[in-house]
Structures are given as structure tokens and as C-alpha cells.
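Hi both,

Apologies for the delay on this - the queue was longer than expected. I finally got the NDP-bound model through. Below you'll find the protein sequence and the ligand SMILES exactly as submitted, and right after that the C-alpha cells for the full complex including the ligand.
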Amino acid sequence: MIKIGLLGFGTVGTGVYEIINNTENNLRILLNKEIEVSKILVSDINKKRNVVVSKDILTQDPLDILENPEIDIVVEVMGGIDKAYEYMCLAFKNNKHVVTANKAVVSKYIDKLLDLANKYDRGFLFEASVGGGIPIIKPLKQSARINNISNVRGILNGTTNFILTKMCDENLSFDEALNIAQELGYAEADPTDDIEGYDVKRKLAILSSIAFNNKTDVDSIMCRGISSINKVDIKMFKKLGLVSKLVGSAVSNDNNYSASVEPILLNENSTFTTVKDAFNIVSITGNVIGELQFYGQGAGKNPTANAVVSDIFDIVTGQYKRDDFVQNGKLISADIDLFKGRYYIRVSPSNKNDVSKILKLMDLDKLKYEILSMNEDLIVITDVINADKIEQFVSKLNILEKEYCYMRIEGDIMNLKYEAK
Ligand SMILES: NC(=O)C1=CN([C@@H]2O[C@H](COP(=O)(O)OP(=O)(O)OC[C@H]3O[C@@H](n4cnc5c(N)ncnc54)[C@H](OP(=O)(O)O)[C@@H]3O)[C@@H](O)[C@H]2O)C=CC1
Ligand SMILES: N[C@@H](CC=O)C(=O)O
């Protein structure tokens, strides 16, 4: 009998519980072993839950799981950083395998957790931490063994992709779309992590740590989210034949790497723009394999729980490997021309007389631009510039973040639908 201790019984935890207890699936037959969830850690044992579960297996004491000699595998799906890390460390020290969906902890402590797993000769798997239900960690590890990977890029957050899709296709406001994403269980406990791009930053750090065989420091990743995009922007993107996506990219070039998370504007025919709702896509490029793309549901109960259970499966069947990467790195943060391009800028000053001041500021900064709209909002597209130039300009605007939005336009925009002026 394999006994599982679940740390957390929210969206993902209940999904894992249901898959394991679903007698119709053939998990037990495939494993040739009995498997059960024998204890579940929650923060409030009396909370009303949508899942039927015996109160006896719920606990508020983590030691009921971490120091329980009968438990073989600890599944951490509670979120947060410090407590989750502390519990995972204790689980290894008590000779338990660990499976987690927690990208915040994995991105920060991947090296330490792998060391502990190796020290205690236990499995440490985190497939669900990136891309929800998409199998990406395992194939990436396999590809990185044979290839030099030069590029990892993706739409890595279900919540923000859902918001952008609903704003574009159903004309919902940002807040309306975010509320639905929260109701559907896609968003993090604090959705700021989603909308400001921190969640993508963490996922990208995990992917690039594996791809480039070195630990990527989450804080070295330049990051901007989508919170300033509004209905005016979406309307203009449509006129221009462009679609906004929050994209994470990491590029490795000899011993340098550069990584960023930014909202970008893509041609409406590009592969990434076909990725809608909470779906994610990850593209990796290796010197032997070329480009590989992985696509699927990036958030939500069942897809994520599926990834967690497939890790449990690999541990029970011994199909996990010792991972020795993320040590002794040579990579340094480098300024590769990732952010060069034409930029869409919208400024909506509360005082409309400020528009002429803003145009003067652009001229002073020697920004070359084409005006698309000057009515309620000033909207321009710049010539090709570097991100630092735009950041310099924006920092002088001296207005609230909600009052402006800028995004790099990717690729050839000669065929923009909209004729300026
Ligand atoms: N939701 C998703 O689509 C995805 C989530 N993830 C990751 O999976 C993890 C879990 O996410 P999700 O299921 O959405 O989170 P939820 O907020 O839905 O659930 C969290 C669960 O953990 C319990 N919990 C939280 N903190 C503590 C604590 N300190 N002590 C004891 N119990 C605690 C809560 O208890 P109680 O029920 O009593 O409140 C709850 O059962 C996160 O790391 C998230 O980033 C990864 C991929 C997708
Ligand atoms: N909040 C995350 C959940 C999955 O990782 C997302 O929206 O992608």
C-alpha cells in the first residue's frame, strides 16, 4: 500500500484526491499496488468543502503527515513559500518522496530541494509547477540531456491568458475577467502574482534552470504584467490586427542568458495568438531537436491534478531520476537585444491638456512616433527603440500606472490593418 499525505486541499489538492479515489480509473491496476490519501493538511478543519471526505483524515498539524512513518509520498499543494519549503525539507529528512505544484518554492529553492532529495535518495518531482497539465518538465529534462537549448519561450499563465482572451473576444473588462478566472480556480491566492507577471517569472526561472543547466535567479528576470491594459487598448489592438499576450522568454547565448516577462503584441496569425483562455504554450529550441512546442491547459483543478498524479505514478514505479543540474553555473545576466522593437504606447492623462506636454516630452526624448489617436487618449506607435528608452520616457510621465500602457510589437508590422491618421 502506498500512502500519500496531502499538504493542501484546495483546487489542486481536491483534484488529486478525486483522481486517486476514482475507482473507475486504472491507477491501481497500472501501479499494481493499492494507493490511498491517508492524511490531508488544511488550515481550517471545519471549513465547508465541496468534496466528500472523512473528517478523520483532515488535520491542522503538519507533523501528522511529515513525521508519520506510514506516509511514503508528501504532495505539497498548499502554496506560499516559507512554510511550504520548511515542510518539504522536513519530508525529505523523514525519508519521504516529495511532489509539488508550487512554482514559488521550486523556483526559489530548486537547488536546495534537489540536494536534499539526492542526500536522502528520494524523488522530488514538480511537473505541475509549470504549464498546469502540460507535460513540460520531464520532456525538457530529456531534451536538455542531448541538446544545447538556446531558447525557452511561452505563454505560461492561465489566468492572464484567460483575462486577455475574454477582454478581446467577449469585450469583458479586466476586473470582470479576473473575477471569473478566480471563480474557476485558475488564479493564485493573491492574483497580483498572476497579473503582474510574477507567476510567469517563477515558471520561467524553473524552465531556464533546467534548459540551461543552471539555477536562474528569479529576481534577475525583467518583468512587467498586464494590469494596465484596458478596453481602449484592446479596441486599438483589434483595429491594428494585433493580439496581446503575456510572454516569458529566456535566451541563452554562449555563457550568457537573458530572461524577461512582458506583455507583447503579436500578429493575429501567429501560433501564440491561437492560444486562448487558460491554455498555455511552451516552445523550446535545441541544437539537435530544433523547435518543440507543448500546448495544453495551463491552470485549473483537473489538468494540474493530472500532472501531480503522473509524478506520483513515476515515483511509485521508480521512473524518476536523480537530477544533478543547477550547480556551479557560469551563466551571467546579459543584455541580449530581447526588448528592441516598435512600441505601442497609450497615455490617458486625467487632465486632457497634458497630451501636448506628453508629445513635447517624446520629442525631447527624441522618440520617433506615429500618432494613432489623440482623442480621449493619446496612442502612438514608435519607431524601433530599446526598452530602456521607453522606460526612461515613461518614468518622466509622472502619472499613475493605470494611466498609461506600453507594449512591444513583435515581428513585422508592415501589414498593420489600421491606417494611421
Ligand atoms: N490552481 C491552479 O490552477 C494551479 C495551482 N498551482 C499551485 O498549486 C498550489 C495550490 O494551489 P491551489 O490548489 O489553487 O490553492 P488553494 O488556495 O485552492 O488551496 C490551498 C490549500 O492549502 C491549504 N493551506 C494553505 N496554507 C496552509 C497552511 N499554512 N497550513 C495548512 N494548510 C494550508 C488550504 O487550507 P483550507 O482549505 O483550510 O483553506 C487549502 O486547502 C499553489 O502552489 C499553486 O501555485 C499550480 C498549477 C495550477
Ligand atoms: N495561477 C496560475 C495557476 C497555474 O500555474 C495560472 O493562472 O497559470
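Main takeaway for now: The mean pLDDT is 91.

I'll put the files on the shared drive as well.

H.
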